[in-house]
Amino acid sequence: MNPPATKVGLDSFLRSNDKSAAMNFDFDTQIPRRGTGCIKYDRRPELDPFWVADMDFASAPVILEALQQRVNHGIFGYSQAHEGLNDAVIDYLRDRRGVTVPLEQITHLGGLVPALSLAGRAFCKAGDAVMTCTPVYPPFIGVHHDAQVSLITTDHVQVDGRWTFDWQAMANAVTPETRVFLLCNPQNPLGRVFSGEEIMQLATFCETHDLVLVSDEIHCDLVFDETATPHFSALNLPENLAKRCITLLAPSKTWNIAGLGYAFAVIPDDSIRRRFTAARGHTLAEINALAFYAAEAAYRDGEPWRLELMTYLKTNRDLLVNFINTRCPGLSVMAGEATYLAWIDARGMGVENPAQHFEKKAGLFLSDGAYFGWPGWIRFNFGCPRARMLEGLEKIAAAL
Prior knowledge:
The protein is globular. It folds into 2 domains: 7-60 and 303-399, Alpha-Beta Complex (Aspartate Aminotransferase, domain 1), CATH 3.90.1150.10; 76-300, Aspartate Aminotransferase, domain 2 (3-Layer(aba) Sandwich), CATH 3.40.640.10. Helix content is 38%, strand content 15%. It has a 7-stranded mixed sheet with strand order 2-10-9-8-7-3-4, sandwiched between helices. The two termini are 12 Å apart. α6 (144-147) links the parallel β3 and β4 (150-155). It is an alpha/beta fold. The chain has 14 helices and 15 strands.
């Protein structure tokens, strides 16, 4: 058992890592959210929530200003993507993802999860299958029900201390009836940023087995070290491989505007794009009038806020990893390369359901690893003011 960290050691850690004093944006103020109708706090109001992937920070001031200007207009009829948003998205793809995308290849969506469902319905028929790797964001292992098809999963594995794909297991599991591969990159909940070589190998796997590759890249702007672990998008694949890809992106996680419901897909191939679009039918609601303007502001003017957010989150991540691995016997965690979500191995606790244990013993609402396909693990959201995160970690330690 490791000795507990001392208070002096914790203060020293914070002084050496906390850059917030130099920041222009406030990530430390705790904004009350209970009673506002938010899922995170009001689904189980009796618990202290560190579960669902939305942050406890106010959105960037440029987004709030853009929303206020739009509200002041006073009319909120049916809306479509305006020229400013289209230009901002195209500029973002060029400047951040390194690709030039024609506007006709972009499909605006009211959310990213519906796009996963659409892919299953667009490219599968009865008897077909969707494939993914676990642990993974729960909708990945649920959307096949919408298309009434089968699900094939293989586990991610550790190689040289990093999570990656089990290529042999995937080759053994794929079937002639498999039609779609769902990729999460950066990976939620593992926090892994897959390399260009890994994405190339996966795309080649999909080409070999004639699969449409659906790449969910919603966390791609939440990478801690873009030099050491740069995000390699499916958009960066060679043309022969990129043409079978649907790349899903959104400003929602990075700028904390998930409740506004905006995402977009980039689909280079005309045939795949037509099938994907046709599958929508009349099942998806219109994108709301405010979402377009929030997205434009995020992509056009939100970079300074994002950079300071990442500095703050990196200190939170490092502090959490140190705390769990030194103060919490039975738990262990690796430092994620991206996202504000920590994937904690709780199998050493020797309890059947760790999330339920912390609910009963500490009043915490954590994400149960079983919903990601891996029982015995928990996911902790550290996208919150540091003092609040530390309170949650102390409750975990006390419950052990």
